[in-house]
TrEMBL record:
InterPro entries: Multihaem_cyt_sf. This is Cytochrome c family protein. It comes from hydrothermal vent metagenome.
Length: 378
């Protein structure tokens, strides 16, 4: 059948449209996967059930009707006979809970959504201090941990137990004392079999290697193994930051307005990414006033937090300014013991966000010190 020129043109346009839409759909599909596959907490060291340094297990209270960390078939008087909840399938409960969690962590509402953990007292920490910077905000308040940083330290200070949960798995596992009281402890009786765990179910403390003991100088996290990185399965050197934070990057401190190296950030930070001034939302850190260096995925962006409720535009540096605790870290962390690794997982075992500088490396987030230079103008 013969086609007239107009019909041929129409047919060609239709085929071209279908082809273009197909290409766009495929591109969007892979772009969607790449964008949304980065956060996969099951394949990180924060999956405490498969982390070989911690290996969280079930509770050890076999008394029928008693308070257990996991209600299951071992306690049929309370929960029935459906079986114990496997921790590998409930990764999130070690930090979050859908009901009964803390809504105000360290004085900052919403900083750590539905937080499910006991906290240490902010006054228990010794903050960073030096002649060049004193870890204080503009009101003269010492930069003691608050908000999202205090939430991170509820595991990483080595004082609060890994299982210091407010709301445990299953029905009836509510521990109000971990919501009401702060300070060391809070264990609800779960089992841990990893070498990073001490007798109080918290992070073991590291130590300095001693030449008198025939050891090479340096930091040894697991003194029980006594052989440093090769025996620690990747948890060292500093998962346990302790309560003395003087040897760590300052947190819960306001970006200093009087220091010229931060002037470019402070000029545009309150409205970056469409943020409404006074909203108390997170702020993106980027030296380009047009946001040219901001990663497309907001979860990758280096950020400042509104940690002072009375000053919602004051930008504070917190642990989560540079670290994303949900960022998939395989390959690069310990081997996953659950289902196969996501194909789009990046090598990010340090949970680093992506540098707000030109040409960041997604596989080596601090290559050329770009994360450091995203804030510090050196």
């Amino acid at each position: 059948m013969r086609m007239f020129p107009r019909e041929r043109a129409k047919n060609w346009m239709m085929k071209s449209f279908v082809l273009v839409m197909t290409v766009l759909f495929i591109s969007a599909h892979f772009s969607f996967q790449k964008s949304f596959a980065l956060e996969d907490v099951r394949h990180t060291k924060h999956n405490l059930a498969v982390n070989p340094d911690i290996l969280a297990g079930e509770g050890n209270d076999f008394v029928p009707g008693g308070l257990t960390s996991l209600r299951g078939a071992r306690n049929p008087a309370v929960r029935g006979t459906e079986g114990d909840v496997r921790q590998n399938e409930e990764v999130c409960i070690f930090c979050h809970t859908p009901h009964g969690g803390r809504s105000n962590v360290g004085g900052v509402s919403g900083a750590a959504p539905l937080w499910n953990r006991r906290l240490s007292s902010p006054m228990a920490y010794t903050p960073y201090n030096s002649q060049h910077f004193d870890a204080q905000d503009l009101t003269g308040t010492p930069g003691r941990p608050k908000g999202v940083s205090l939430a991170c330290l509820s595991c990483h200070d080595g004082a609060v137990a890994f299982d210091a949960l407010i709301n445990s798995s299953g029905s009836g596992g509510f521990f109000p004392q971990n919501k009401t009281f702060d300070g060391p402890g809070g264990s609800i009786g779960m089992g841990f079999s990893g070498p990073a765990v001490d007798s109080s179910n918290s992070f073991r403390e590291g130590r300095r290697a001693s030449a008198s003991n025939g050891e090479s100088p340096g930091f040894v996290f697991f003194d029980g193994f006594g052989s440093g990185p090769n025996a620690s399965f990747g948890a060292e050197p500093f998962p346990n930051l302790g309560l003395d934070l003087r040897d760590d990057h300052p947190i819960s401190m306001e970006i200093p307005r009087a220091d010229p190296q931060f002037r470019e950030i402070l000029t545009n930070i309150t409205t970056k990414g469409g943020r409404i001034p006074g909203s108390g939302a997170v702020m993106w850190i980027d030296r380009d006033p047009n946001g040219a260096n901001l990663p497309l995925d907001k979860r990758d962006r280096i950020r400042a937090y509104a940690s002072d409720p009375s000053r919602p535009d004051a930008p504070y540096i917190e642990c989560a300014s540079c670290h994303n605790p949900h960022e998939a870290s395989r390959p690069g962390g310990q081997p996953a013991l659950s289902e196969p690794v996501n194909a789009f997982t990046v090598n990010n075992s340090l949970f680093l966000r992506l540098a707000s500088r030109p040409n960041p490396d997604a596989q080596d987030r601090n290559a050329k010190s770009l994360i450091c230079l995203s804030c510090h103008k050196k």
